Predict the structure.
Amino acid sequence: MIEDELNLSNSLVSVINMNSVNERINLYEGKAIFRFEDREVKSHCKIYIEWLPRPYIKFDAVFQERTRINFNEKVKFKLKDDIEEEVLFTKTDIMAIEVSGIFTRGFSLKDDKRKMNVLEFTLINGFDNFGEWIKSETHRYAGRINFSYMGYRIIIDKVHNYKEIFDELKQIGGYSITHHAQILRNDGLDFSEEDGMKLIEAVEWLMSFANGQRVGVCSLCGYQGTKKVLEKYLRPWVDSNKSTVVTWYPKNYPTNDALEDVFPNLVEKLNDELWGDVLPVVLSWYLDSRSSIIVENKIVSIQIALETLAWTYIVEEKEIMDGNIFNNKLRASDKLRMFLYELEIPRKTPNNIMQGLDKKYEDGTYLFTECRNNIVHPKKKKNDTFLKDINKMVGVLNLGINYLELSMLRIIDYNGIYTNLIAENPKERDRRVPWFYC
């Protein structure tokens, strides 16, 4: 009945799928050539993705002749004359006939160097999102995200077995395909792999930022009509799934379209000459702060990210202050205070973090930078409450995360609902970004 009412679309599928977490994916078995500096060796080869302890595209090969192996030598792998990939050997038998290794970047089964009108890809370790209702062969579920940018449409669907996959990821950790996705143009025209990859990089950035853990892509398939013109597999740079990380993204907020709203702005920023270099670096520091188990390391990562954003915004983009003055005349707390002021982000330390602290720490920028300074230079001060109490340290950490998340959201021009990690009333955590009211 719901299908008739909503006219549900079929959920997307891809050339690869996973029935369970950390399941090996076989990609190819057959003839292949290994090209050394001075010779070529024919082989029978199996290629597969193996996830643990870290994801790699691996191969096992049987050479037709005994071959001298140098484990430091980067060798070319060929299926076809026009496709070569770089590999490293990791293991060989005593006769150097049976060998194993890894692809250093990726592996292509097909690459016609042609434009396409559909580009399919798979996401690893995304999150259990809601979204538009779709249907698989067995059931209906809410799981589609739609991004739009300059005539492009990006469709991202949770896998049909998402319940089992996300339950396994929570229980045992590791890696899995969580979403199938595709890119196409609204006018049906062709586009290049390079154009598609720019959009995919934005998808990876935004999904990772919302998830608090790295989300990556492991396969690309391009089509020109019904003809496949590209089939490529990539080593995904992703984090092993951990327990759910609470971030700015309000996953359970009704009618939440935060990601769809901000995606076009993000693509513009990533294509910008200045921010295109800075935002990926800042995201890396942010994700490091969410993945490390040591609170002190998390705080240092956040401080580096905030200082990077502050310099870029105040000195380079807005030219509010000369770089020499910014670097040499301002304390770290002054830099952060000025930056948050310009972005219209509140700096006051919430009461639930202030309890037991000196009144001078009511300015959150001072509290956060003092905590960071005492971590990096522990001999300077010995009596700070937040260094003796792990709960206070976690409170300072959450304050810094809140500053960083809001700063990143402001940079990419987000004006919607966010989850405030330091809200004193848990019922008021989901709220509009503060600059919306300024």
Q: What stands out?
A: The longest helix spans residues 295-317.
